[in-house]
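INFO worker-7 received task bundle
INFO bundle size: 2
INFO processing item 0
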Amino acid sequence: MFTAMRGLRVLELSGTGISKLPQSLRKMKLLKVLNLNDTEIERVPECVRHLKSLLFLALPEGCKKLPVWISEVKCLQHLECKGVRRMPKGISKLPALRTLRSDLLDLSSEGDRFMRQEDFVNFTQLQELWLNINKEMVSRIEEGILALLVKMRRLTIRNSTVKELELPKKMTAMKDLESLILWGFAVGSWICDMANLRELELKWCDCSDYSKFPTMPNLVRFELSGNDSCKELPKAFGQRGAFIHLRFFKIDWFNELMEFPELEEGAITCLEEFHLCNCRKVKKVGEGLERLKKLKLFSYRMSYKLEEMFKAGGEYSNKIKVNNPHVKIMS
């Protein structure tokens, strides 16, 4: 079949359950997109080596390794290989690579066959990266190696060490960064100076001061997950002008949090979804939730002490429904 389709540009095979590709695929010299997500393929097919026009390659999670020859696919811009944690050294020789989505990339220094943190200097066009920080990388992170990735737009980093790491302030050189997802870091307030951030997720991160986050001008999605010490959030979260463009807000596993502050008129005016989940000591959400005219969903899953406050037909639920009859309130 593929022999007669040499002009094909896009081949979407995700979810088909195939386990191999025919060698005739190598003749599709104009193919730009090959999606193999959710298939049974366990190795990158040899025919991919000959697709010199390929820009986008998505591999299934069952594919755990990349071949050394992947560096020969010179036009590749987007590589999705969520089952791969160790990249062959040649991956840094792909000059056009912009997106590298893996299962949180491991850059351990052992051996010369795999990519190491020193190879970051070759990623001059990289815009999206998922990265796992192990103990071998600690000193390089603290020295500010992330600042080399100045064209980054989407960055996900997990700290897999027992050491509490502080991200380098040099990361502010990423002027175009739009999405930042962090696991297990000490977070400085300088992150709030990254004016282009539209998405920010802090998972089990140590943050001494939350008060500057409401001033971030372009933030659309904000998630705070995992905190065993924070008993209250700053009043700035509910003050007029706070989170002027925020549409999605989630607080999850804040185990000591007692209440969410009162929302003044003009606070979080664009909010569409508000999730207050697994916060088992929260017993009050400050007045003002009824002022959120664009709110479509308020969820308080596993936050049991809010049951009485938001029970169907209750005084507070009715107050919200009067001002915003379309909102869904879900436990």
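INFO item 0 finished
INFO processing item 1
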Amino acid sequence: MAVASSSASPQEKYDVFLSFRGADTRYYAALCQKHINAFMDDEELERGEQISPSLLNAIEQSNISLIIFSQGYASSRWCLEELEKILECMDRYGQIVMPVFYNIDTSDVRNQYGIFGDAFAKHEERFKGRQDVLQRWRSALRKATNLSGFDSNVIR
């Protein structure tokens, strides 16, 4: 699939990159059943570890990024960092990005209300003095919710 981009895209290795929180792999399994080459990070990252360069490369080397916003998504620093990279690839390479709101209200994600607000309150404690990081994550969430996506309460 050819996509217009503002600069040269890295060699595409994956059809889809899945960004999600938790052990639920039904999305990955469904894509594989349809013979879609999907990347799913199945590494367990320890507290304090950085997202690996191989994971960031996998995002860059994907044609589409599918973001599964669920109740635990915002509690994961790594998910939020993935989200930033995904949106960077959308802007830089024209990567297709599709958000899925899984049992979560879009406005809670956009405005960090409810469980997303609770997660950000914990991030504020953890990242005291790093308001720039929190602001980037908030901005990324707002930008992602403005993209056309799917709501599990409306469509399965």
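INFO item 1 finished
INFO post-check item 1: The first helix runs from residue 26 to 33.
INFO post-check item 1: The two ends are 25 Å apart (CA to CA).
INFO worker-7 idle
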